[in-house]
Amino acid sequence: MSTTTSRRTTSAPGGSRRSARPDRAAWGFLLPFVALFLFTFVLPLGYAVYQSLLTPVRSGPLGLGPATLGFAGLDNYALALQQSAFLESFARVLLFGLVQIPVMLLLSTALALALDTLSHRWAGILRAAYFLPYGVPGVIASILWGFLYVPGVSPIVDLLGKVGLAPDFLGYDNVLWSIANIVIWEFAGYNMLVIVAQLKAIPQELYEAARIDGASTWQTAVRIKLPLARPALVLTGVFSIIGTLQLFAEPLVIKPLTSTVTNSYTPNLSAYNEAFANNNIYLAAAESVILALVASVLSFGFLSLVNRKERRDAR
Amino acid sequence: MSVSTPPAEKPVPAASAHTSQTAGTRRDGRPRRGVKPSRILLVALLTIAALYFLLPVYWLVVASTKSSAGLFGTFGLWFSDPQWLDNLSKVFSYSDGIFWSWTFNSVLYAGVGGALATLLAGAAGYALAVYRFRGREAVFKAVLAGVLLPSTTLALPMYLLFSKAGLANTYWAVLIPSMVSPFGVYLCRIYAEAAVPAEMLEAARVDGAGEWRIFGTLVLRTMTPALVTVFLFQFVGIWNNYFLPLVMLSDDRKYPITLGLTTWQTAADRTPELYQLTVGGAFLSILPLAAAMLVLQRYWRSGLTQGSVKG
């Protein structure tokens, strides 16, 4: 197939008619990706929607006969939205995101701006140190921090105990923020690197001009670097929102350590348990679809909000 | 010749120009650039931040040298009776060397999946950047939607679909989804738009090269920085992935390291020696990626710049 495509394009006189059969070549390049994309994104989503509309119907006396599948309409969705634990899990990740994302992005931005003013060698070593946790898988990071939270193993609890503090990292009020700490630890350095990359792309003449105008390091950072780092901040913001809604591995690993993390601590955990512990894949499918909907509404919403503001600012 | 020089090299001179410029500022002898209290404070704060990021890793290094008793009985941030090799050999020999299988699987999933995802994303991104064809906008919008949709929300439906297709609990169940990187396509498109010159393609076509040969010889080379970035993203993403293999796999010989270690961690309640093995395994599992992070962060950074300039 590839040879015929190329031969045909080659035979176009002079090659200047590059649009002779561009569709065919373009689709040739796209096909493998598009096929797999359909199989791993579009089809599962469609299948989930389909499954979410079904429900097993028991037949025979006392409902002991073989179960058949019946059309349930929106019953599964209604059921999911009536479960207070499922709704609470959404409230929990929203609260989590409202606190964790700003804290992490502030930290990332501060580190990026600070590194940008440092001399080369220092910045390199520190940047590597901040970025290192990104290479630690989320579950491993959670296992690690789990050890650091549990009294008896944790040197942190040990040390704080010596100065008279007895923090209960896994207690009811704290565990959500202990999980937030794990997520910040994992991703602050990565986000910092995205922002650093953006800062490096700023034309040097701007700094030159600012210095001639007598701007201080601080003024340069706030007035020039920060506004120009905006695309990177938007990018990291969107990815953080998506990441927050996916929250799964961290609470799952922390769960055995404390009774305050439940089976439906996050929406993802809830859907997982519905499917594999309660064996109700139809309800699980409905919960997955709801989660996907909320995730796209929030990430698209954030993007259009930011873009609208950008357009207004540009005017 | 000059045509094929990738504009990708740009970030590098830009970065070095920055360095020489800061150095030049210092040599100006401007007193404000000397060691000021505010600068000492800045370095102090940055050092504290470094301690925060390194502390758990340091704890892991120390803990991996301890006996099970030492893990619970001694102060976590200092060594006591190190028995490192003994611990690590236990990790590898436990349960007929299952840790080797997990390592092999992680390398397979992340290496093969990452490489194929990169190639597919490169081809798709290039096509979206260079050709004008019907359906182009539709494909790009679908890709963007794919970027914005959390992959874990899809893992569960994907499991239902894959088990229908008889693919659940096979290597394919993890490999196939790993080959798809919408973000990679997005990045490659932006990069190809900036870096693949139309003149180069024209020249190659005049010389009689077919579209596939142009892509295979010229374009792939021009896009190398973007492709390296995509590969790294995808490799780390797959290596760190937990939800997908958890949902898809039931045979623990097919597990990647992440999944395997959590089975040890959860079984440690009943088999306390597994605490030590979990710690040792965690230490071993972050070695390759930590090393890669340190070596590759520079390259990674220059690739990211290209992606985010227009993004």
From TrEMBL, chain A:
<keyword id="KW-0812">Transmembrane</keyword>
<feature type="transmembrane region" description="Helical">
    <location>
        <begin position="232"/>
        <end position="249"/>
    </location>
</feature>
<feature type="region of interest" description="Disordered">
    <location>
        <begin position="1"/>
        <end position="21"/>
    </location>
</feature>
<keyword id="KW-0472">Membrane</keyword>
<dbReference type="InterPro" id="IPR050809">
    <property type="entry name" value="UgpAE/MalFG_permease"/>
</dbReference>
<feature type="transmembrane region" description="Helical">
    <location>
        <begin position="93"/>
        <end position="116"/>
    </location>
</feature>
<keyword id="KW-1133">Transmembrane helix</keyword>
<dbReference type="InterPro" id="IPR000515">
    <property type="entry name" value="MetI-like"/>
</dbReference>
<keyword id="KW-1003">Cell membrane</keyword>
<feature type="compositionally biased region" description="Low complexity">
    <location>
        <begin position="1"/>
        <end position="17"/>
    </location>
</feature>
<dbReference type="Pfam" id="PF00528">
    <property type="entry name" value="BPD_transp_1"/>
</dbReference>
<feature type="domain" description="ABC transmembrane type-1">
    <location>
        <begin position="90"/>
        <end position="302"/>
    </location>
</feature>
<comment type="similarity">
    <text>Belongs to the binding-protein-dependent transport system permease family.</text>
</comment>
<dbReference type="InterPro" id="IPR035906">
    <property type="entry name" value="MetI-like_sf"/>
</dbReference>
<protein>
    <submittedName>
        <fullName>Sugar ABC transporter permease</fullName>
    </submittedName>
</protein>
<feature type="transmembrane region" description="Helical">
    <location>
        <begin position="26"/>
        <end position="50"/>
    </location>
</feature>
<feature type="transmembrane region" description="Helical">
    <location>
        <begin position="128"/>
        <end position="150"/>
    </location>
</feature>
<feature type="transmembrane region" description="Helical">
    <location>
        <begin position="281"/>
        <end position="306"/>
    </location>
</feature>
<keyword id="KW-0813">Transport</keyword>
<feature type="transmembrane region" description="Helical">
    <location>
        <begin position="175"/>
        <end position="197"/>
    </location>
</feature>
Automatic annotation (TrEMBL), chain B:
<feature type="region of interest" description="Disordered">
    <location>
        <begin position="1"/>
        <end position="33"/>
    </location>
</feature>
<feature type="transmembrane region" description="Helical">
    <location>
        <begin position="40"/>
        <end position="61"/>
    </location>
</feature>
<feature type="transmembrane region" description="Helical">
    <location>
        <begin position="274"/>
        <end position="296"/>
    </location>
</feature>
<feature type="transmembrane region" description="Helical">
    <location>
        <begin position="171"/>
        <end position="192"/>
    </location>
</feature>
<feature type="transmembrane region" description="Helical">
    <location>
        <begin position="138"/>
        <end position="159"/>
    </location>
</feature>
<dbReference type="Pfam" id="PF00528">
    <property type="entry name" value="BPD_transp_1"/>
</dbReference>
<comment type="similarity">
    <text>Belongs to the binding-protein-dependent transport system permease family.</text>
</comment>
<keyword id="KW-0813">Transport</keyword>
<keyword id="KW-1133">Transmembrane helix</keyword>
<dbReference type="InterPro" id="IPR035906">
    <property type="entry name" value="MetI-like_sf"/>
</dbReference>
<feature type="domain" description="ABC transmembrane type-1">
    <location>
        <begin position="103"/>
        <end position="296"/>
    </location>
</feature>
<feature type="transmembrane region" description="Helical">
    <location>
        <begin position="107"/>
        <end position="131"/>
    </location>
</feature>
<dbReference type="InterPro" id="IPR000515">
    <property type="entry name" value="MetI-like"/>
</dbReference>
<feature type="transmembrane region" description="Helical">
    <location>
        <begin position="212"/>
        <end position="239"/>
    </location>
</feature>
<keyword id="KW-0472">Membrane</keyword>
<keyword id="KW-0812">Transmembrane</keyword>
<keyword id="KW-1003">Cell membrane</keyword>
<protein>
    <submittedName>
        <fullName>Carbohydrate ABC transporter permease</fullName>
    </submittedName>
</protein>
